[in-house]
Amino acid sequence: MVDELVTLHEQKLVWKTKAGVEVKMSVNFHLLVCDSDARSPLQKIKQFIGSVAAVFAYTGTVLQKMHGFVRTYPLEGNEPELRTHKH
């Protein structure tokens, strides 16, 4: 998918209208929903492996949970303001 999106951006879509006018259109995405396997190549980063999430470069902490383990990333800095119906 990434290669196709790059091709559409660089080579442009070209077609003719019913009136015979040639139209060239570049494809640009400002927002794209994708899974973690597609996200890394789209952001031009390596997939996170082990203790560091490449997008944020936070070192996680491994905790045992039920029958396995999870990696948590602690909040750094001030806690965000609680959301209410007034905000």
Strand content: 25-35%
Structural class by sheet pairing and helices: alpha+beta
Rounded radius of gyration (Å): 21 Å
Total number of β-strand segments? 6
Principal-axes shape call:
elongated
Helix content percent band: 10-25%
Number of H/I helices: 2
Distance between the termini: 39 Å
Largest sheet: 2 strands, antiparallel
The largest sheet has its strands arranged as 1-2
**Contiguous uncertain segments of 5+ residues:** none
Please trace the helix and strand order, writing H or E for each element: HEEHEEEE
Mean pLDDT: 78
Q: What's a concise summary of this model?
A:
The protein has 87 residues and is an alpha+beta fold. It has helices at residues 2-11, 36-43, and strands at 13-16, 22-25, 52-53, 58-59, 61-65, 68-72.
Give a verbal description of the structure.
Helix content is 21%, strand content 25%. A hairpin with a 2-residue loop joins strand 5 (61-65) and strand 6 (68-72). The chain contains 2 helices and 6 strands, in the order H-E-E-H-E-E-E-E. It is elongated, with a radius of gyration of 21 Å. The protein is of the alpha+beta class and 87 residues long. The protein has helices at residues 2-11, 36-43, and strands at residues 13-16, 22-25, 52-53, 58-59, 61-65, 68-72. The longest helix has 10 residues, at 2-11. It has a two-stranded antiparallel sheet with strand order 1-2. A two-stranded antiparallel sheet has the order 3-4. Strands 5-6 form a two-stranded antiparallel sheet. The model has no long low-confidence stretch (mean pLDDT 78).
